[in-house]
Design brief:
Number of domains: 2
Shape: globular
Strand order of the largest sheet: 10-9-8-11-12-13-14
Largest sheet: 7 strands, mixed
Strand content: 15-25%
Helix content: 25-40%
CATH topology of the largest domain: Rossmann fold
Structural class: alpha/beta
Number of helices: 10
Length: 368
């Protein structure tokens, strides 16, 4: 837990005269988070205008001189993901060509992080995006809860992958009544490690939901069917040939573990399409769970997620403000937000003052 971080970072102003060479810039993706971070650091946001022409080209105009300054560009991924990316790349390149000393990309939610594996005849989009960011001039990346930790290896610059788990654990302990009667639930076997990590630190039991109505990402067929099938007369006997892969057959959805008469807490790194969470909540309710919480770092909440959550057995969805979701909160009273600007501002302060980042990863496991 990041106990003691709040006292130090509540007004975590830069040391000495170093405020003069730090500039906080933000795009259009999440200006509210940028304001929170700038206020905690005690610095003024730099003058930067990012807008679109009538032909939808992105224009970036930096109002102040940034020669020799340390730039921190705050831009996250939202539903307008492609514009978010282009704004970030153009802002970074504008800073690079304006002779900035260093350019750090603060990207709380990294877009395209789910496309980090080869699918069919596609490509690994996360690596393409990482290379584009490095080429644009970014010399350091600060992000939070990457979908896969290995994405850090796609970048040719340092990446600090912060964790929101201390904030979520604190929420469980302080805001869920009788949390000692809870069980941490993994929505699928793939998230069992994360659920185990939470359960061990809270000294709680764990349950795993096995079998899904919708295919998990890890179960998708690779899809490459070449070379084409050769007529039987031209192939070897099957006994000496390449054995065929047996098709996976999923069992009916069920819960491994006891949730009867207890509070079920599902944990994951992001909530985008909520249908799988709703299906899991219905099964947990049938198994006797009397309250169901869903906790995640990134609350994308796409499509009609607010309506589905409102009509589901889920009692509360808790996400951080890495992604703006004020509109979704207006449509669904079950969505709660945790502010993580204090963690990002402390990371910026430590990087700027060339301090160790290890304190921010204290007691954080690889499974978080």
């Amino acid at each position: 837990m990041l106990v003691g971080l709040s006292n130090r970072s509540r007004n975590c102003n830069m040391d000495g005269n170093s405020t003069s060479d730090i500039v906080i810039l933000s795009g259009n993706s999440h200006p509210e988070l940028a304001d929170l971070i700038a206020n905690r650091l005690g610095v003024r946001k730099g003058g930067c205008s990012v807008y679109h022409k009538t032909n939808r080209e992105t224009i970036v105009e930096i109002a102040d001189s940034i020669r020799g300054k340390n730039i921190y560009i705050i831009q996250t991924g939202t539903k307008d993901v492609n514009n978010n990316i282009m704004e970030l790349l153009i802002m970074a390149y504008a800073c690079k060509t304006s002779s900035a000393s260093s350019i750090v990309g603060v990207i709380p939610y990294l877009p395209y992080s789910k496309q980090c594996k080869m699918r069919k005849r596609g490509c690994i989009v996360s690596k393409l995006l990482a290379q584009m960011m490095c080429k644009s001039g970014l010399s350091h990346i600060i992000t939070m809860d990457l979908h896969q930790k290995e994405i850090q290896g796609f970048f040719d610059c340092p990446v600090d992958n912060l964790r929101a788990s201390p904030f979520l654990l604190q929420y469980i302990q302080e805001s869920i009544p009788d949390y000692r009667n809870s069980v941490i639930v993994a929505r699928n076997p793939g998230s069992a490690k994360k659920a185990t990590s939470y359960a061990e630190r809270l000294r709680l039991a764990i349950a795993v939901i096995h079998g899904e109505q919708k295919e998990a990402e890890s179960d998708e067929v690779d899809g490459r069917y070449s070379p084409p099938c050769i007529p039987r007369s031209r192939t070897m006997d099957v006994s000496v040939g390449v054995p065929a892969h047996p098709a996976k057959e999923k069992p009916p959805i069920n819960v491994v573990g006891d949730v009867g008469g207890r509070i079920a807490i599902m944990v994951d790194d992001m909530i985008d399409d909520v249908q799988s969470f709703v299906a899991a909540a219905e099964v947990l309710k049938e198994c006797g769970a009397y309250k169901i919480y869903v906790l995640a770092t990134h609350g994308l909440l796409s499509s009609d997620a607010p309506r589905l959550i409102e009509d589901s057995p889920i009692d509360e969805v808790v996400v951080t403000n890495t992604v703006p979701h004020e509109l979704q909160k207006m449509q669904c009273n079950k969505i709660k937000t945790i502010d993580i600007s204090i963690l990002i501002s402390e990371a910026i302060r430590r990087i700027h003052n060339k301090e160790s980042m290890s304190y921010l990863f204290k007691n954080v496991t690889l499974e978080d």
